[in-house]
Structure formats: C-alpha cells, structure tokens
Batch of 4 targets.
Target 1
Amino acid sequence: MRPRYIALLAVFCLYAAAQPPHKTENVILVMTDGLRWQEVFKGADATLMTDKQQEVAPGRREALLPFLWQEIAKKGQIYGNRTAGSDAYVTNGLNFSYPGYNETLTGFADPRIRTNDKIPNSNVTVLEWLHKKAAYRGKVAAFGAWGVISAIVNGARAGFVTNSGYDPLTAPPVTDRIALLNRLKGETAVWDDEPYDSFAFHTALEYVKLHRPRVLYLSLGETDEWAHAGNYALYLRSAHRVDQYLRELWETVQSIDQYRGKTTLICLTDHGRGEAPLEWTSHGEKLPESKFIWMAFLGPDTRALGERTNVAPVTQSQIAATLAALLGEDYAGAVPRAGKPIEDILPFTRN
C-alpha cells in the first residue's frame, strides 16, 4: 500500500475512533398542541390569572413542568427561549395545527395545506418513510387526541398502527385495559373531534408495553383546547399533566430492556400563540408571534447542553430529519425539501 493511502487510512481511523458511538435505537416523539414558549420558559403568567386561579396554578417553570426542567433540560437540550437568544419557529407561515404537524413530520411546509380539515395527507411523513424500511416494518405507531392526526400521518396508506380521536384501538390483542379505554373514550365526549388527553396517552402507553415499537408518535391536544376557551387555569393544568405523562412514559421505557439507554425523546408543539393579555387564546397567520415554538431532546446521543442560549435559530422543519438521523437514517438526503438535522442533537455526525 502506498504511503499516501496509508496516511489517509490512518487519518480516517483516528476520525472514526473520535466519533461518539451511535446509541439511539428507538425514538419517541411527543407533541402538545399550542403550548406557548412563554409558559415553558417563564412559568405561569400572573397577568392571566385571577386570585382564585393563582391558588391552584403553579408559578415557576420548574413547578409547572418539573420533568421538562429537572430531567430533560438538565440531561438533554431545550430550545426556544427568545429572551435568551434561542429562537425556534415554524416555517409554514400559517401558525396553526395541520400545517404545523405536516411540517414537523415531513420536514417541509406545504402551501396546499391551508385548513384543519380531516383530509388524508398526500405527503409521506418521516414515520411512513421509516416504516417502508425492513428494520421498522410493523414497529412504527402513531396516537393522537385530535381526530385529524390519523389523516395527517395517513395511516391507511402508511400501513402502521394509528389511533386518534374517538376511534377505538382495534390492533390485537385488545386487552381488558384497552377495551375499557376504548369504552370510556367513546362515553366521554368533550369536543367534537377530540377526547381528553388521558385516553390517547394511556392507550399509547399500553401499546408500548404490548408491542414495543421502535418509533412512537404521540400528539396531545388539551393545551390548545383550553387556551381557545380562554381558561388559563385548565390550560396550565393540562400542561402540567403533559409533563407528568412525559415522566411516566420515559420511566416506563427505561424499565424495558429494548428501550433502556437506547431511546431518544423529542418534545415540541405544533405552533405558538399570541401575547397576553388578550391574544394568547389565539394563533394563526394574523398573529406572526404565534410562529414561535419550543422543542426539547433527551437521549443517549444528545449532549447535556441544557437550556440553549445565544444559538442559531432552529425550525420545526428540522424535526423529521433529526428524528431519522438519531436512528442512523438519512431522511434529509432522501427528501431534499426537508430541513437538515439539528447538529447539536447529533454529536456523532459532527465534523
């Protein structure tokens, strides 16, 4: 072998040896609809609470979202505190749900998507893209409180288990616990197309225990529903419950050999909201500030950089490629329109 090639081989070996090992084998993506970055980073807004509400609503961000701040932010990374030089935002320009979920799951904004109508998504999401690969066949699942989630991921075409809204989970085995969840969900009508978050969460949790998917998507919705209703106390309680769900889900998977030390958790929202004291109940194209979101990451491949400050902006369109890259898959290369992975989440890809 020529000396020049020997030198190049030596450099390559040194570079490869310097790269951290890739550990993530499973990814859990959780979204909670319309939870503002303001509450995530600042806690409850006293200007939006009556005296009675202040008695029941937590104030500090650590009290409102203890798992997010005591575990994820300390052992992982969180983006979106605009007061600390960390912008996270959607790129679709519409700042409402279907466009935001599509952008998150496909990696790009689609100008054709301009309503929240329950229309099957013509775009292939990263979930479907992964499911087409042999390593993920039968190992992808999506759950949502909002009934439109099944259409957004286009489960009928994608072929993986999808359950949202008031639909019962019928994937076998339908255990006694799942049958009870199905029944209670159907008997507890709240909003036209969305039951309480508890049904989506506990159904997804049972599915994880039974089937051990490698990729799990869970979408929760009460934070948005109570915000639109102008009920700040219930909005805060829903956010706090989402945090409890994240803890329970994380602790559950860490108790299972397949997931322990080999799973990354990604959390974010689909859009932001307007400013207090009036516009916080709304969002959309006419409220440009509602494009700002937050996102958080926890897993064996994500360095513990905590709350990110004074960093380059990140976008919702980067989530799909980041999710795939955590699994060692090049979604951005296969889908040029998609945003690129967030490099700081992937130390094994850094130069």
Note: The beta strands are 26-32, 77-79, 88-89, 140-144, 161-164, 215-220, 263-268, 295-298, 306-307, 314-315.
Target 2
Amino acid sequence: MAAIAVQRFAGTYRAVPVPSTFAFAVHHSGVFHYRGTLSDVAATLSADGHGLVLDGSARVESISVIEPPAMRESVLGPAFFDAERHPEITFRSTAVRLADDGRAEVDGELTIRGVTRPVSAAGRYAAPRPSSFGEIAGLQLRASFDRREFGFDWQMEMPGGGNGLGWDVELDIELLLRRDDPDEEAG
C-alpha cells in the first residue's frame, strides 16, 4: 500500500456541503432516540499561524423533520427552534486542539435561538492530504448539552410516567473540508 502524504493545516478549509452533516439525537417517549439532521451546513476551518479557528452554521429550515407536518411546524415554531426569529444555529471556536494521533478537541460558543453558551466537543480529525479534487481534510466531533440551556423547555408527561422528551441533546458533526485557497497549496 502506498503511503499518503499528510501535512499540517495551513490556510482556509471549507466544508463540502455534501457529505458534511450536522446531526442530533434526543431521547423520545422514554424508549428510543429521535435522530435528525440539518442538511444546510456551512463551516470554515482557518489556520493563521496563531492557531486554528472553526466557524460553522446550520440553517434550521433544513431540518430533516418533515412528517407529520404538525410535528415539523412544532419543531420550527416558538416552543423549539423558533426558526422565524432564529433561522440559524451558529458555532465559533475559542480553542482547537489537534493531537498527533488524530484526536480533536474543540471548545467554543454555540448559539441556538439567540442564546449563546459554551460547549466542548471531542472527536477525530484527518490531516490535510492531496486528492483528485484538491487538498482535503476531515473533522468529526461529538458534543452534548442540556436543551433547557438554550430555552427548549417544552415537556410532556408520558401517560405511564416519565418525560416525553429527554433534556440531553447529542450532536454529531462530520465535516469533509477542502482547501479554499488552492493558489497557496504549494507554499
């Protein structure tokens, strides 16, 4: 097997919209995890010599909740995402740490519904390498938070007891990053 030439991050990398994903899961009805995605994702990882900065956003209207229509209306409405007043979820890193063994840790500020809170994520990264469509890299992160911290206070008591919707939300972010400044790739 041929060796792959791997290099450090330099310049700017943008997420390739497909297949990059922003997924979430929340315990539902006390029996399973309801999983969904936001498909309209934008992210930039920039290296400026002083470190790395990760910025990202996801359009709430791109949520995978389609059926039943009443559920979509509820999820996009004021009790949950309030998409009319807050159409995007955004993130800006305060620290990005990439270990030589591929581990990644990112601290930053997540904004949902106009509320900004600190969040930490951990996962893996694949360092930049050449490909047939430019220099690429990968970043996979997982984080969790209590949805009440962002104003998602809706709850329903289950007929047999317990909550209809869990408080903890799990986030999974997968980014395929392509270098955005190809003229500088050789430098």
Note: Confidence is low (pLDDT under 50) at residues 1-6.
Target 3
Amino acid sequence: MYIQDGGVKLTVVNALGREAVVAILGPGDFFGEGCLAGQDICMASATAILPTTVLVIAKSEMIRVLHGEHEFSDRFIAYMLARNIRVEEDLIDQLFNSSEKRLARTLLLLARYGEPGDLQKTLPKVSQEMLAEMIGTTRSRVNFFMNKFRKLGFIQYNGKIHVNDSLLNIVLHD
C-alpha cells in the first residue's frame, strides 16, 4: 500500500494485549510490503490518523512493476533500505537513549526533519499516549518532557505540536 495523502500509524499488540506504535507514516510511504517476501500474516495493524488516501496495489501488479519499471524499482528499493536503516536507528535509540532523547528524536522524525524539502513543523494529530507507546515510556513522562520542551522554546504545544529546529539540541547534547 502506498500513502498518497494523510497519515497512518502502524501498531502491534502482544499476547497480553499491550499495544505499541511501531511507525507513523505519511505521504510517499509504503506499508504492507511483507507480502512480497512471502509473509502470510501482517504483524501490524494500520490505522489512519488523518483523512488519508491510500493506493492499494495488488501483489501481482507490484511484482510486475518492480520487474518492468526500473525507475520505480530503484525508488522502492531505496525506500526499503532507508526504512531498514530507520528501524535499526530506532532499536539503537530504544536501547541506549533516555526517554527524553527518544521523545525529541521522535518529534523530529514526525516533523520529517532532515528530509528533502521543508520541515513539516506542525505535526499530524498525535496524542501524548501515542508518543508514549512509540518511545516506550508512560504518558506522564511524555507530558513532563513536552512541558519542558515548551518552556525551553523547542516546541509550541496547544492541541497541535509545532516543532522548532532547536529541538535537535536535545538529541545532539550528551
């Protein structure tokens, strides 16, 4: 599936019913590609978090296009490699960084910091609970750090989250 417009969150649930947000995706992102590698059951659930337009591509059509359209194939492979790198970075972040740094990094990633084009400074609708699920902490810790970031001028937060470039200081500071 290819997101043309809007936003999607991918979640997984463990045997005890605990849910974790594993990704927030936006325009230009793919999901559900595990079927191309023979994955019978999708491990994650996708939920629109904004009004969203998704292009559903049949497996047979995707395979045909990947084999026949080299420009598209190159773009898709580049996307998958970049996402694999991001997953590795997320794992390292989870293992070695504080929840404050994980939150700052997540806000910057949601704002698409460092990608070509302008920084999407105002984030799509995202709750403190969802942020807590993404970084592996509690909503109260997220609330604490969001208030700290706001007082330091790294974000504006009144319903919608507006991310300032200066938030990068939290991620870079040891």
Note: The chain has a mean pLDDT of 88.
Target 4
Amino acid sequence: MIRFEGKDVLTELRELASPRRAALLLVDMQQDFVAADGAFASMGIDVSMYAEIRPRLAGLLAAARRHGVLVVHIQNTALPGGMSDSPAQIRFNLRMHKAARGDGPPLRYTVPGTPGHAFVRDLSPLPDELVVSKYRSSAFWGTNLELLLRSNGIETVIVGGCTTEGCVESTARDAMFCDHYVILAEDCVGSDDKEQHDASMILMRHRFDMATAAAIQDVWAAEPAAG
C-alpha cells in the first residue's frame, strides 16, 4: 500500500486479492460460446483456447468457494425475437465472425431457454451464488452488478472467462470506471481468435493488475476470509 494525496492505494497482490475485499467474476462461460457443441463451434469457429483455460478457471472457482470469496457468474443473454438488440447491436453482431457467418443473418446465441444459454457444467453456479444477466458486452452496463458488489463491500474484481478482447475487457474497463481495483486472471481468460486475445492482453497489461490462478489462490490460502 502507498499513501498518495491523502489516499491509501492498494498496490500488492496480497492486498488487492484479499478474500475480505475481492470478488471473482466469471464472464460468459456458457455453452454457445465455449462448448464443443455450442453455437460458435458448430459454425466452425475455433474454441480450443476455452478447453485450455477451463480447468484453471474451475480450479480458481473451487478455491474461491473454499475461502469464502464472493463469486458472481455473468450470463450473456439475448432475448427472443431480438427484443434486447438495438440496430447498433445488430450491426455489431453482423461484424462478428463474418467469415464463418458468410451472407447469413446476424449471429444468434445465448437465448434464454436454449441449451446454449446455460453455463458449462464445470463452471455452473451453486444455488446460493450470484448470477447477473447482461445484454451487452460489459457486465456492468444495464445490470445490477455494481449494486451487488457495493452491497457486499467489494473493492477488487478478479476477472476470468471469455472473450478476452470482448466481454472480459469491456467488463474490466467498466469495473475500473466504477472505482474497483481490477485483477485479470491472466491464464483464465480466452478467445476464439488468438490474435485478438494477444492484442487485448497487451492493452490490459498496461492498465490492470494481472496474476495467474495459482498466485491468486496462494493469496486466498494465506488469508482466509473472516467469518
């Protein structure tokens, strides 16, 4: 910790990731995005990076549960009939994976009631864990996430999930704009485009703290949550 202009600023991982002040955000670990039989994989999009990160993210989730760290599952949602999609959002979807989509309609994914909206089994929420539905890339935009974090005294968000350059980076940026410290679980984020993943990681490395799942778990093991 440093003292700057009359304010205490956390600087060390052991401070930032303390179970007393941190929450784990799992972003969009849903069938349509990451599963081998989900909407994206069915279009021929490469989801192999998700298979690599899932065991590490599942391990981080299990550790959060053991050490009393608040867990929030973020669930991307697209309402049936395009009710949550503005014209600008439709245009956004038209630009996504154009090579795989071809001349077809905008991508449709994570519609409630479909298998693709569900979380993958190894990263599914427990009955008492928070689930926040979102309709845009950022988990903060148009949701109650900030209220939930503030109500539980959360200062730091630890972010993992997908996609690195999309919903993960958008959520990390908005967390900072809401005055939360941000730790990116750097080996627990992934994309279906390695080039975009790498570019996003370069950008975020200059803006946010980064730590491996193992390093974060070491902090939690050294300082169990109170109560």
Note: The radius of gyration is 17 Å.
